[in-house]
Amino acid sequence: MGLWLFTRVKCVYMDPAILPLVVLAIAIVVVGLVLKRLRQPHVVGYILAGVLIGPFGLAVVTDYASMARVGAFGVLLLVFFIGMELPLRSLITHWRAPILGTALEIMVSVVCVWPLGAALGWTPKRIVFLGFVISMSSTAVILNILRDRGELNEPIGRDVTGITVAQDLAVIPMLVVLGLLSGDRPHGFELTLQSLGGLGALAVVYYIARCGGEINLPFASVVRQDREIQIFAAFFVCFGFALLTGLMHLSAALGAFLAGVVLAAAKHGDWVREHMDPFRVVFVALFFVSVGMLIDLQFLRDNVATIAVLVAVVFVVNTFINAVALRAVGHPWRASVYGGALLSQIGEFSFVLAAVGLQNGIITEYAYQTTIAVICLSLLLSPAWISLFRRLVYEKPSDRAGKPASVTAIRPPV
Question: For 207, 282, 366, 375, which has the most beta carbons within 10 A of its beta carbon?
């Protein structure tokens, strides 16, 4: 269908990229408006739009790699904004929940997978791999929902956000462990870079927290006087920090988060938020569209029972594990269960772990496709799962007035 459209409208006066862009925009608008009537968040609309126009749908857009690469910028911009808005000193004061909660969550996830793996005859490395995969939560989904609900600065929102940051850091040792289980030995130079990068990130956070949350950046007064330069300066800071942490073999998202922390400490969050928000909306949308493009409808039809059971197990088990972890670090049960629901989906970094597992022979091609399908469906269904638990255990009476469940709107803290 997509190729037929291309051949019909192709002409020398039009770039071939225009058609998929127009179809993508139409799909997002139409699906988004329908879901808005059903009080569903925009994230669901983006994923369904990706299913519709992707290679397993109408095939209007088939270049998943390019879409995913562009969408990855959206995750960086989202984390960048969170770094500007997160109460850093409060997060450091309550470090127990992010660090201990993440460690407990990962260990319990592996322990929960072990009996199943033993019963099915899996190797220990496959069991550890799947435990790692299900322990990762989606930064993009969680932070969007917390911001939309105005819960980012609440105790449970603060600690859940801290856990997502800790999970980003945990990806590095996870990859090292998977490499060791596959027979690979980490290079000393790489480990040194990662250690130095991690210490540097901690030093930046500690310095900002210690100096009272305010620092001075060079050329700040000059940049404030030029609107266009402000945009490129914000891009430079965000992606410059991401590049730096990437060169240190750490998560680029960690660098974007640090960039947001630095700009917030320099009191530049106002103009950065104003100028960068449209870019954030577009790129985050493209990330979720790329997730939808991964959903193979034929594979889903052929394995619907298996995938449905796995998705249900992931939601229930992850909610339980994370609720117990949050309760163990001091949250009341109601908030803990809601926090467990927030962290119940499988996150975007699990795509990376799945690719590593396939490359190292830890899982088969069929298991890889199943893993991808479960990750995508958990991202698609998690807003509804979170809303259900919020209504059951956490929602305040005043919240039942019924505001739209958009998860992309920006509400700067007052």
Answer: 375
